[in-house]
Amino acid sequence: MEFTKGHGTGNDFVILPDPDGALDLTPGLVAGICDRRRGVGGDGVLRVVRAAKHPEGVVLADTAEWFMDYWNSDGSFAEMCGNGARVFVRYLLASGLATPTAGTLPVATRAGLVRARLEGDAIAVEMRRPRLYDASSAVLGGLTLPGTAVDVGNPHLVCALPAGVDLADLDLTRAPGFDPRLFPQGVNVEFTTPGDPVDGTDGHLLMRVYERGSAETLSCGTGACAVAAVALRDAARDTGTITVDVPGGRLTVTVTDDSCWLSGPAVLVATGTLTLP
């Protein structure tokens, strides 16, 4: 079958067009496709399927034609992927499968409906407003780091690093420890440190992330939204715009009264033919 490779700030995906939901996608197949030595390689798979043809998308078929069937690189499901949604929309537009109406394009996901809009070379997606709901901590290399649990359609734990701990020195080759009672389905863990002021925004943070099901990635869109929401809370603000720099580039997050917009580059880099076992 045909595939396309794309990325958003280095968060890379294998895109599989399957409009009628005919592909028998399995965890083993996804893991094989995402293998960086024996497969195409990627942080996850984006299956492009009509919402009406997918059992989890059919409930949104009246409001969105396309369902983003996202899988982590280990073959597990994910409720939402902010960078994946932006790359998914770039693919729909580039392949002629969809055209924005009044400047926006709806996409169905496991976390509900998201809207996308073009912003020059960037694509922004509107997701639910992040919900900060508990305090917890992550354990990494003998350090216990306090953090905030955040729901962005998927679970996050945002940990600001204390003075004397360098973001670049963190060893994210292993998964951080977390409280399984609070996160029974696992959690994406973000580590942050302040950055230099950026004009036109209300804050600037540097971030690294360990994603459940994918290990450390160069970027995490929903993680950037979680980080921005915590930064605004710490600044005693309900809304605002935060710049988040990840190893793969720069994202801009705008939290409004009722939603959250994630903006950044979304690039298609290759197409090819995938031989399935």
From TrEMBL:
The active site is at 81 (proton donor), 220 (proton acceptor). It is an enzyme of class 5 (isomerase). Transmembrane segments: none annotated. The record marks 156, 211 as: Could be important to modulate the pK values of the two catalytic cysteine residues. Keywords: Amino-acid biosynthesis, Cytoplasm, Isomerase, Lysine biosynthesis. Pathway: Amino-acid biosynthesis; L-lysine biosynthesis via DAP pathway; DL-2,6-diaminopimelate from LL-2,6-diaminopimelate: step 1/1. Gene3D superfamilies: Diaminopimelate Epimerase, Chain A, domain 1. GO terms for cellular component: cytosol. Belongs to the diaminopimelate epimerase family. Catalyzes the stereoinversion of LL-2,6-diaminopimelate (L,L-DAP) to meso-diaminopimelate (meso-DAP), a precursor of L-lysine and an essential component of the bacterial peptidoglycan. This is Diaminopimelate epimerase.
